[in-house]
Structure to design on (68 residues):
């Protein structure tokens, strides 16, 4: 015996399953979101770095020494 589900019933079941999964996997979702934000910030930093002048090795080490 095969039961047909209407489109509304399928949407409701999918929504409930998705909601339950997100609730149960909250930590995983947080980690994925954090990784995405980190990647976006890294891309932005790379793009900004490509538009600036290159720094010499001495300049970089001088900045690092001053911060210590």
């Amino acid at each position: 015996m095969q039961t047909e589900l209407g489109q509304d019933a399928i949407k409701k079941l999918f929504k409930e399953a998705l909601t339950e999964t997100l609730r149960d996997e909250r930590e995983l979702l947080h980690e994925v979101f954090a990784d995405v934000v980190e990647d976006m910030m890294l891309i932005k930093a790379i793009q900004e770095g490509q538009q600036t002048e290159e720094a010499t090795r001495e300049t970089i080490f001088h900045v690092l020494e001053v911060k210590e």
Summary: Residues 7-67 form one domain. The helical segments are 7-24, 26-50, 57-67.
